[in-house]
Every structure is written in C-alpha cells, then in structure tokens.
Specification:
By secondary structure, this protein is an alpha/beta fold. It is built from 8 helices and 19 strands. The model has no long low-confidence stretch (mean pLDDT 94). The protein binds flavin-adenine dinucleotide.
Length: 315
C-alpha cells in the first residue's frame, strides 16, 4: 500500500535551477520514469564566459550550448521546462507547493534546489565588465587559455596565498596584488619574491582594457600594471533566497549544509528537499562536479520515492 498517492501531485519532482546540476538530476530522474518539471530563470553562474572548459567531451563549449544540449536530453525522457523563477516553496503533508513568478503554483512530491551561487565582485571599476573575460576565478577553467601571458592574482587573505601558487604554474610573468591589504609576513613574501614574482601592495582602483580584453590594473598611486588576465576568488552567496526562506543552514562559505546517508547525498534539514551543485556544501564548484552531484542527487531522490512507494518495508 502506497504511503503517498502520486495522483495528489502534478510532478514527482520539481527541480529549481536548470544549470548543470539541475539538468543532470533531471536526466537521472527522467530515465527512472519520474515526472519532472525544471524551472529556470536563466542566470547561470558562468553566463559571462564565452567558453567553459574541463568537462570531458565538451571542453570549450559555450555555456548556453551546454545548457541547450542538456535540455534536449532531458526532454527526451519526458522532462518539462518552464523559463521562470520559483519565488517560494512550502512543505505540505508528504510534498511541496511551490510558487512561480506568475503567482501560479506547482505541487511535487520532492524538490531539488540546483540554484547555484552568485559571486560577490568588488565594486572596483571594471571588475564586473571583465568578469569571466579577463578576470577569472578558476585556474582550471580558464588558466590554460592565458598560459604564458602577463598574469595577475589578487591575494587579499592568507587563504588566497595557496591559490596564488596555482597561478604561478601558468606563467613566468606573474604579479600578486594585495589590494592594499596586509597579507604577507616576511616569510610568505620572500617565498614569492625568491621565485621572481612581484608583489604590488597598492590598492586597485580600476581595471581597464579595450575590445572586451583586459589590459591594465590601475593602482591608487596612478601606476598602471599591464596584465592580460587577473585571477580573483570572490566570496560567494546563494543565488536564490529560497534556501533561507526554507530555513536551511547556510555555512560560512555561503553553501547549504547537506547530509549524506547510505541511500545517497544532498539531503537537507527539510524532509524531501535536496540540494545539488554549487549551492551545496561539499560540491567542488565546477561543471563536472555539478553534473556528478546532480546525477547522484537524482538517484537519491529516485530511491526516496521508491522507498515511499514501498512503504519503506525493505529497510
Ligand atoms: C565566470 C565563470 C566561468 C566559469 N567557467 C567554468 C568552466 O570553464 N568550467 C567549469 O567547470 N566551471 C566553470 N565555472 C563554474 C560553473 O559555472 C559552476 O560550477 C556551475 O555552473 C554550477 O552549476 P549549477 O547547476 O550548480 O549552478 P548554475 O550553473 O549557476 O545554475 C543555477 C541555475 O539556477 C537558476 N536559478 C537560481 N535561482 C532560481 C529560482 N529561484 N528559480 C528558478 N531558477 C533559479 C539560475 O538562473 C541558474 O540558471 C565558471 C564560473 C564562473 C563564475
């Protein structure tokens, strides 16, 4: 005897966010014959980048093309899409009622948040303009393309020193910018200087360039340092307010705390609600990781639905 009457719900699963994580969860669920609605408001984290790298068989693909291919695969297994924002999610007996931007509501047995994160860029002139073009956060995603170029890396705290060592491997011409912060002790400073890396301590006041390409880092003393790419690891926050509205625990890094069990991953403190991809703790922020996470969360949700359908009797 089923504990949940599936006829009470329009969909088995509502997936909020149609980036790599949400699409991958949808593919897994669609192939398990679960009815899935994916709602996406079209603001993926990497939208400012012309290409995405490092995803095997799709290296160099434009982000929108990857999304389009993903959608086509999901539709093949019955997945439905709505290009809209989900503004609210509430837990009812056994399931969820979610509100779309239009005010319309959708019911589902489970919900997956694949809503991603937003990067907190400094309001320094040019940062926003060159983000994903000349300013990159991830050496694995965009380092190879600028190998050997005059590069910069912003190091504003101790944690970022390790990050700078990753950039060191990409070019012999590297400048570390502390943006006016007191980051380096003598030992750390000489670690860089001894390797021929300049440390620039003046605050950055602007990034300038032409034709969409970064050319100069402008400093408070008026000096302009020529750089073709600048690496910067921004603080992140949840893209969507839904995690907070649902009372989910968001950790110091801005990620939703998720749990795993022998049945899978992506569980949250709200029963039946799962998180996958960049938004979740423990998921390294990249397309391959988001796809892997979505894939496993999709299987986890399918397992939970099956358990409900069989009244949990094999446990
Ligand atoms: C500039 C830049 C370049 C990058 N380049 C690479 C790269 O080359 N290779 C790589 O592996 N990684 C790259 N990344 C990282 C990569 O973009 C992320 O790791 C990946 O997109 C995470 O996938 P996701 O599905 O978790 O989130 P996202 O791709 O951010 O997708 C989340 C989706 O959810 C939607 N959404 C959010 N809230 C709601 C809501 N309430 N209702 C409806 N929809 C909602 C958003 O609009 C978005 O479409 C890059 C990141 C940046 C910032």
């Amino acid at each position: 005897m089923q504990t949940t009457d599936t006829r009470d719900f329009e969909y088995d699963v509502l997936i909020i966010g149609g980036g790599p994580a949400g699409l991958s969860a949808a593919l897994q669920l669609g192939r398990s014959l679960r009815s899935v609605l994916i709602c996406d408001n079209g603001e993926p984290r990497n939208s400012s980048a012309a290409e995405s790298h490092g995803y095997l068989t799709r290296d160099g693909i434009p982000p929108e093309e990857l999304h389009q291919l993903g959608r086509e695969e999901v539709v093949r297994y019955g997945g439905e899409f709505r290009d809209t924002k989900v503004t609210d999610v509430s837990r009812d007996t056994n399931g969820f009622t979610s509100t779309l931007d239009s005010g319309e509501t959708v019911t589902s047995r489970k919900v997956v948040l694949g809503t991603g994160v937003k990067d907190g860029l400094p309001d320094t002139d040019g940062f926003e303009e060159f983000w994903g073009k000349g300013v990159h956060h991830c050496p694995y995603c965009h380092g190879y393309e600028v190998r050997g170029d005059p590069l910069g890396v912003v190091v504003t705290d101790q944690h970022m020193i390790e990050y700078a060592t990753l950039i060191y491997n990409l070019s012999d011409d590297l400048v570390v910018f502390t943006d006016g912060r007191d980051v380096f002790d003598e030992e750390a400073r000489s670690m860089f200087i001894d390797r021929g890396i300049e440390i620039e301590d003046e605050p950055i006041v602007a990034l300038t360039g032409s034709d969409g390409g970064l050319e100069h880092i402008v400093l408070a003393d008026g000096n302009e340092v020529t750089r073709h790419a600048l690496f910067y690891g921004p603080p992140i926050r949840q893209h969507s307010a839904l995690a907070e509205r649902l009372g989910l625990e968001v950790n110091q890094e801005g990620l939703v705390e998720t749990m795993q069990s022998q049945d899978g991953i992506g569980f949250t403190s709200v029963e039946g609600l799962f998180v996958a991809g960049d938004a979740a703790s423990g998921s390294p922020a990249s397309i391959p990781s988001a796809v892997a996470d979505g894939h496993t969360v999709g299987a986890t949700v399918n397992m939970e639905l099956s358990k409900e359908d069989f009244d949990g009797r094999w446990e």
